[in-house]
């Protein structure tokens, strides 16, 4: 559910004026508050989540029991 919420929020923010401003003036926009800061935080959280999932999969990996997409690679 958390991933679905993150993707929904990022799509809303990407379609906004804030995203266009961020793409035009990235250095300036990093210093200003706004919804684009939420987007950047979601990206950080998503990276952390992915790293944690990969770490769990590496610890519990069984070549004879491929549970999901991550186990296949």
Automatic annotation (TrEMBL):
Classification via SUPFAM superfamilies: Cytochrome P450
A Pfam family of this chain: p450
InterPro entries: Cyt_P450, Cyt_P450_sf
Any GO MF annotation of the entry: heme binding
Superkingdom of origin: Eukaryota
Protein family (similarity comment): Belongs to the cytochrome P450 family.
Official protein name in the record: Cytochrome P450 2J6-like protein
Species assigned in the record: Lates japonicus (Japanese lates)
Lineage: Eukaryota, Metazoa, Chordata, Craniata, Vertebrata
